[in-house]
Every structure is written in C-alpha cells, then in structure tokens.
Write a structure and sequence with these properties.
Layout lengths: L1 H9 L1 H15 L11 H27 L26 H17 L2 H40 L26
Helix pairs in contact: 2-4, 2-5, 3-4, 4-5
Length: 175
C-alpha cells in the first residue's frame, strides 16, 4: 500500500497538482483571476473526470494484475493487458494529460495548456526511447505483439484480446 501511495505522490500528483499549483501561483492568477466561460468549465470537468477515471483504473490494474506500481522503481511483475490496457498502452499518461487539459479548460489559463503540451511532449520522447525498450526486455514477444496491436496514446473503440491462450509465464487473465 505504501509503495502505491509513494508512486502516486511522486509521479501523477506532481504533474496534476504540484506543477499546476506553482504555475497558478507564479502566473499571477491570484492577483488577477480569469472568469472562465461556462463551456470552459464544462470541458474542464469532462476532461478531468475522464482523466481521473483512467488514472484510477490504471493504478488498480497495476496493483491487482501487474503486482507492482506505476513507478519505474517498483514496476509491475506481470504484463498488464486487461481492462483499459486492451484499448490503450499508456492509460496513465493519457489520464494525466486529460486532467491537465481539464485544468487548462476549467481555469481558462494558457499557462496550463503549455504545461499539458510540455508534459505530453516529454512523454512522447521518454516512453518510446526508455520505457518501451525496458518492457520488451522484461516481457519479450508478448509485449511486442501487444505493442503491434494496441495504440500508445488514444484508446481504441474495440478492445484487443490477442493474448488469450498465449500466457506463457504471465497472467493475462486478470485473475
């Protein structure tokens, strides 16, 4: 439990709470606030709710199925290809990005949009160059097959179930 809390506080919490709070403070928003339009608040709530839903789903699957956390220092022991992972390979990053878009829309501040774009650009570099080679090294051909069939960022409408019956030493069933 402590390892999950540490991972959450170290990674997504910093991205969606700490950095935006610093942006809010240093941008002078306290001094001269912006009154967001109703549709900005609506979009902000929609994006934030969708993002939080993705993040919660990811954390649960990492704990239950993957037997690890979202943190690189305590990664999953099993390849997770159930639940939302049947539709998208990086739901945590997609979730964080949605929350950041929600903050930008709901607060109607360009500085938050810039932060969201910096966050996603950094992950667009980090994930293919650092994270995915590690997953290939850990999970081999199972991850290669998964990678070929499931999108990295945008969830697909139809879930992929290509690893059924091909579990080798991994538990792909979610049990």
């Amino acid at each position: 439990m402590f390892s999950h809390l540490k991972a959450i506080l170290s990674l997504p919490f910093i991205a969606i709470v700490v950095v935006p709070a610093l942006i809010f403070y240093f941008s002078g928003a306290f001094d001269h606030g912006v009154d967001p339009p109703w549709y900005g608040i609506f979009l902000g709530g929609f994006f934030a709710a969708a993002g939080l839903s993705l993040m919660i789903s990811t954390i649960r699957l990492f704990a239950k199925v993957g037997e690890g956390t979202l943190a690189p220092w305590n990664p999953t022991q099993k390849l997770v290809v159930v639940g939302i992972y049947r539709r998208v390979r990086n739901p945590m990053i997609s979730g964080v990005f949605c929350v950041l878009l929600g903050e930008a829309s709901g607060l109607w501040r360009w500085e938050f949009l810039v932060w969201a774009l910096i966050f996603i650009a950094g992950n667009m570099i980090y994930i293919p160059l650092c994270e995915e080679p590690g997953l290939i090294a850990r999970f081999g051909s199972d991850y290669e097959l998964y990678k070929q069939n499931v999108r990295r960022w945008v969830p697909s409408v139809k879930p992929w179930d290509g690893l059924r019956g091909n579990s080798h030493d991994h538990d792909f069933s979610g049990n």
